[in-house]
Amino acid sequence: MNSNLIWQGLSSKENSPEENQTIPAHPRKKSNRNGQDKITLPADLPVETTVLDLPEEQKVCPETGEPLVKIGEETTRKLVLEAAAVLLSLVQTCRGLGINPREYLEDLFRRFMGHPANRLDELLSDRWLLSRQQDR
Q: Could you state, in order of their start, the residue ranges of all structural domains in the chain?
């Protein structure tokens, strides 16, 4: 390998003036949510708001001593009750599979206690749908 080529390539970069390169902009997909969550939570469910803030000593620039300027915030909503989150997840899964959530839950509660424990997986929403389609 010719080491002169390597050094020549490095030295030519060091001696050449910096070039500005223009990179064309590209279209960016815009969010369809308009600031809304993906899942709409029922209004009567309890929602907890948590504010995460910096301690006062971290709100000052360490270099200049000037106060930092707040440039934005992010807001998310989370369910307080885990049971409500599980139920909402179950309802959303049913909707995604094209199942009427009420019909599924009524059948599930009717069959749950008498169903063999080693076959509980048959009551999962996707398998329940397959068994209902085969029964028809």
A: 79-136
